[in-house]
Amino acid sequence: MNSARRIGARAGALNCSPGARSCTGAPSAAEGANEDVAEADTRSTVHEQVFTWIGAQVADLPAPTAVLEVGSLDINGGIRPLFAGADHYHGLDIAAGPGVDEVADAASWIPPRTYDVVVCAEVLEHAPAWADILATMWAATTPGGTVLMTCATEPRAPHSAIDGLDVREDEHYANVGAGEVRALVATWPDARWSLEWAQDRGDLYLRVDKAASTATA
Question: What is the pLDDT of residues 78-116, one digit of tens each?
């Protein structure tokens, strides 16, 4: 049984029901998209529920023209195939390799443009400055655009960003608290947000929609 539960939402936020993996009120096609993703030839070996959740969110959005992925290094399969229809896809990571278009630290990177969708999957638990990364993602989101983020929270076991095995001695790892994320995104103006915590496996799922009238800053 999936024990995801709603952590909280800003007034006017997306309505997420306890036990749901994605927000209710989305078109029914979103549910079918989950099955399509599972059967697609482009299926990633990224954490299964994460891939499915992002796929459901993408199905609920207008087709994005420009996408930014933060932490795009493809170690065990990536999410880029979910955005195959985008005209522009930019992968940002602190290390060069497959799936990386630009090497930079997202915590201090200054976006040269904005994007319809800014996505980050299973990265923040490996980043000591995760709050700064989220702030960068919000700044890089065009008015009317969406931030999608998944990361590890309690009770997920520590794991390495290198290979998913034991954390190395010189490697940062810390599960990201749901309350900390909620406190941060609650300060973003004109944001509609939803935060879900899958307590059985330690997944945190965040979606934030930026109002079309919000200036990018």
Answer: 999 999 999 999 999 999 999 999 999 999 999 999 999
H helical segments located in the chain? 29-39, 48-59, 130-139, 178-185
pLDDT band at 145 (very low <50, low <70, confident <90, very high): very high
What pTM does this model have?
0.79
Q: How far is CA 44 from CA 16, 40, 78, 129, 168, in A?
A: 26, 9, 6, 27, 25
Q: What are residue 190's phi and psi, to 5 degrees?
A: 55, 40
Domains of the chain, CATH where assigned: 4-210 (3.40.50.150)
C-alpha distance from residue 69 to each of 95, 158, 165, 201 (Å):
14, 23, 23, 24
DSSP-based three-state secondary structure for 82: helix
**For residue 183, what are the contacts with CB-CB under 8 A and spacing of at least 6?**
none
Structure tokens at 190: 């004109």
The tokens for 88 are: 């522009």
Output the average pLDDT for the chain. Answer: 81
* Gyration radius from the chain CA atoms: 16
121: β partners: 150
- Distance CA(49)–CA(51), nearest Å, equals 5
- Residue 66 to residue 89: CA distance in whole angstroms: 6
